[in-house]
Input
Amino acid sequence: MHPTSTFEDEAFSLRGHTQVTGMWHMLCDTTRARGRDVWKLTYSDILADADTGQAHWEAHYRFSATGRMVHKVIDGRFTFNPQGLIATHSDRFNFWAWSRWARRACCGAGRLLRHKVRAPAAANLQKYLKK
Output
């Protein structure tokens, strides 16, 4: 991963190697600690050339904040630098469907709900990176 890489999804807006790799390490550590028994990841439709790439994956996991099982369907897009390292990674998924699985949300998935997901995600990452 390039030192100035970026990652974007509904929960995170990250800049730089430390934040991006820190998020992946945090998610993997959380899965090992609280949900390895139910973690499942499938992937398909992987396409790439020298400049861009895309992948589709589906993650089944236990959402750590609520303990609920989640099925998250994700489409990722990537750009690569001239050395072949990931420069940008953007994941898109149906936020409304995910929020119903993860939090039992019963009304709109607007900015307020997104903020309620992004704020603790950012705080958890900052706490994790300080370790």
